[in-house]
Design goal:
single chain; Rossmann fold; DNA polymerase, domain 1; 6-stranded parallel sheet; about 15% strand; globular
């Protein structure tokens, strides 16, 4: 899919499904948590739809109350913090894209619903932290879980004063809707866990087949 792109000074990336494929770690962590509540998951692929949304919302989708969902998040993190966090892989070409953006003097920031402490660990583990000017995520206590809150936080901490020069790049509707809520453009990518219909319905300003396609789009890289 080829769409016209604009050039931006501030590039905000989602993490899961955008820069990395966290499928194994996230689905195994959810299954681990659900097993504690006597819910057995036979097919981990059935949990892929929960890659992207806030975890509390995902567990409430199983009929859990808010209180029980918060308990489920704690169980999820028992597995995730030691194992699931590293059951993850970077999409091919991501380091090349980030390097190219740095060469073009772009300010690169992460805006993820994942707890900020875990996001930094993941980026450092894969040698990507060096490219980021700021890493923003949710808090372990559940604060700043909504994507719009994370994006707002990243824009503020990143000292972005002209929002017309900022763009949010992500694979799910939450990234696109969050960007619209705070008043910045968005680019949907199809290498993750959303699909074209979801991203169009959310109102993405552009959609590309893969985040790494952007490395070849001179109009996006232009200063």
């Amino acid at each position: 899919m080829e769409e016209e792109l604009m050039s931006y000074d501030y590039i905000l990336f989602d993490l899961d499904g955008t820069l990395t494929d966290p499928k194994l770690g996230i689905t195994k962590s959810i299954a681990y948590s659900l097993k504690f509540f006597d819910i057995e998951i036979e097919n981990l692929d059935s949990l892929c739809k929960y890659i992207g949304p806030p975890l509390v919302d995902s567990f409430m989708d199983f009929g859990f109350s808010k209180e029980k969902a918060l308990e489920a998040v704690d169980k999820y993190r028992e597995y995730f913090k030691d194992y699931g966090i590293y059951e993850n892989e970077v999409y091919e070409g991501v380091a090349q894209l980030l390097s190219k953006l740095k060469e073009r003097k772009k300010k690169i920031m992460l805006a993820t619903s994942k707890p900020e402490v875990f996001a930094k660990q993941i980026l450092e583990h894969f040698g990507l932290l060096q490219y980021f000017d700021f890493v923003g995520g949710s808090e372990l206590n559940g604060d700043r879980a909504e994507k719009s809150e994370v994006i707002q936080y990243v824009l503020k901490e990143g000292k972005v004063t002209d929002r017309t020069k900022a763009v949010m790049i992500g694979d799910r509707k939450y990234d696109i809707l969050g960007a619209k809520e705070v008043g910045i453009d968005s680019i949907g990518v199809l290498n993750g866990y959303g699909n074209q219909e979801e991203l169009i319905a959310a109102g993405a300003d552009a959609i590309v087949s893969s985040v790494c396609d952007l490395v070849n789009r001179e109009e996006f890289l232009d200063n």
